[in-house]
Amino acid sequence: MKTLTIDHEHENQRIDKYLKKLLVKAPSSLIYKMLRKKDVKVNGKRVKENYIVHYGDQVELFLYEDKFKEYTEPLTIKDLPITFTVAYEDEHILIVNKPVGLLVQPDDQEDVNTLSNQVLTYLYKQGSYDPEKNLGFTPGPVHRLDRNTSGLVMFGKDMKALQDLNEMMKIRHCIDKKYYTIVKGSMKDCELIDYVKKNEKEGKMYLVSPETPGALKMHTIVHVLKANKDFSLVEVTLVTGRTHQIRVHLASTGHPVIGDRKYGDFALNKQFSKYHLQSQLLHAHSLTFTNPIRSMKYLKGKTVVAPLPERFKNIEKDLFHK
Fold it and tell me: What is the pTM of this model?
């Protein structure tokens, strides 16, 4: 039998989720079988899979030591080059400035050199994360950016921070996220509310009527910073967080993001080949903690900003400062 004590890093989560993170090499079917057969007890009592573990709980696993070691093989930290820059960091949270071209999480094409794995490399080297000492928890991103969108991504460095940040993203109005982009044409300040649905086969989002089954509300606020007759530099605030939201919403108004190969003006995009712009010019510029909750309350009022990438600054200068 193996006995573990729940610490602050692992409290306030379901027992099945805790076990999946702890017994990372074990199949989910085995974990649920252990729960059904009373091979998992908390404080000497059988629990169901939805039991929430608390600080100080004694979790007993009826597993031989060799099996426990087999199932809890520590995460291997890869020695990756660090291509992000740190925008803000304290003992609980890390906010990084992601470059264009880097995935946040692994996909079918790339499962090694991702932002998440680079962050683990960074935290391990600085001594704030050790997978052998932190079985059952891995620092992770709170939200994602498209591979070719640059800017701010938040990571929780401990379980409580990650849980609270994820909750803040769900309930909205806790974190104010602003993006910078340059769009086609002379745009005006506006507030856009529409409904959208994804075409899974095409991997594209389309505006649909509110009555469409599976339609999701999309709410975007646009503030124009600079404009001429051909282009506008805009600051975009996301109220909702749908896939490709900014790109879809701006394109729907006739002001697509320059460089966007999926929703943009393909003829216009060719004008920017001299900048080697191969994707949407979109940058997650700032995060403001407007109404943080629980363990994140100390961040109330804090704004973190990511400087514009050089390519973005060069295009902006050429378009608006001639």
Answer: 0.84
